[in-house]
Structures are given as C-alpha cells and as structure tokens.
C-alpha cells in the first residue's frame, strides 16, 4: 500500500506530482486512531438522527438522505453539512493538517463547497455508487472557473477501506479526459458500477484499482477522476468524511 506522509520534507512536491499525474493521492496516518474513534461516534450520532427522521429531511443546508432498504428497512446514505449541527465535524473539516494538505495544491485562499458523511452499513441491500465524475455535481459549469485546478475533493477514512467493504474503485489518469458524461441516466447512488459504461466512453475497466485506506488516512481526488464503489460485504461499517 503506497501513500504519502504529511511530515515528509518534500511532501508538497510529491503530493502535486502524484495528484496531477494520476488524479488522486493518499496521505497516510494524518489522524490518529483515537481521533477517528471520536469522529466515528459523531458519525453514529448523525446516523441515528437520520433514522429518527424516517425519511430524507432538509433544514437549510443540512440534509439527511434516507432511503428504503430491502434488508435493513431504511439506511442513511449520506448527510450534507453536518458541521452546522455537530462541532466535531466542524473541528475536523478545518483541522490544520487538512488545511496544509489542501493548501499545498490550491493555496491559502480557500472556500469549502461540500461537507458530507457517507456510510456503507453492513448488510445493506444497496450501498453502491455508479462510475461517475464529481464534476457532474458542480453545476452550472460557469460558476466553477478552472475546476480542474481550483477544486479538490478530500475524504477522511474513519474505517479501513478495502474492496470487501466498498472501497472506492478508481481509474488513475482518467481526470485528463475532462467531463465524460458518465452515469447521466439517474442518481449515482441508485446505480451499480458497470464496466460497459466505461467502455462506452473509451476507458478500459482493466485499469481500475481499489483506493485502499487505513483508519486516519486522507484521500484526495480530482473532480474529473472516474470512480465508483460497490457494496459492503463485511460485518463492519465503511464511513468516509468528505470535504
């Protein structure tokens, strides 16, 4: 498992090279296991809150996406902007380590666009995300100038991420092809990954790899990187904090 270390002397240069060449990077052990246990408890609070609503619920920017599930009755797929409600999420999104990572790519003049919690609960009948690019969510396009170089997506691994529990599947280098229009037939969280969707836009699914992370690792990926994720076939959750 390769990855960068935040405290390396040439960290910024190595991060830039990895990210711009391959469209993603992973920084190892940014946060301690104790910190992620604390964040995990915050995740559990928000999941319970979502289930109490019983259905999708929005209050201003705070949004709980709750969907029916054939196995579990209902599941919370994600929460948007929990930082408005829970100080733990607010703490980690502006943690100095995160700012150092993002700042090394984008500079110090930063504006946050999204703040999300993602779950893949064990036993869920549907927890997949179809192959897509995050540029599809940055609309209208004219509102995001130079999206490829002015925006980066980050994910903090609260749990270990492997293929068995639904780790992201990514296609390194696919960010170089721009907006490919993947998964335009509906919500990405209502579709499974299909290799044919990649072939239809000239991509080879044999180039896919698993974005493996351990607890406390941080991943970064381009808004044009092709990625998706499958089901969780383990007995443990797979939680990801996206900013």
Low-confidence stretches: none
Indicate the mean pLDDT: 95
Q: Figure out the total of helices.
A: 6
- Determine the fraction of residues in helical runs and give it as a percent range: 10-25%
Query: What is the number of E strands?
Result: 13
Broad shape: globular
* Strand adjacency order, main sheet: 1-2-11-8-13-6-5-4-3
Can you summarize the main beta sheet?
Answer: 9 strands, mixed
Strand content: 15-25%
Pattern of helices and strands: EHEHEEEHHEEHEEHEEEE
Distance between the termini: 23 Å
Compute the gyration radius: what is it?
17 Å
Structural class: alpha+beta
Verbal overview:
By secondary structure, the protein is α+β, with helices and mostly antiparallel strands. Helices cover 25% and strands 22% of the residues. The protein has 6 helices and 13 strands. A hairpin with a 2-residue loop joins β3 (57-59) and β4. It is globular and about 45 Å long. The mean pLDDT is 95.
Please write out the topology.
Blueprint: E1 4-5, H1 11-22, E2 24-28, H2 33-53, E3 57-59, E4 62-69, E5 73-80, H3 87-93, H4 96-106, E6 116-118, E7 129-132, H5 147-150, E8 153-157, E9 168-170, H6 195-199, E10 209-210, E11 218-221, E12 227-229, E13 240-242
Parallel strand pairs: 1-2
Antiparallel strand pairs: 2-11, 3-4, 4-5, 5-6, 6-13, 7-12, 8-11, 8-13, 9-10, 9-12
Short description:
The chain is of the alpha+beta class and 243 residues long.
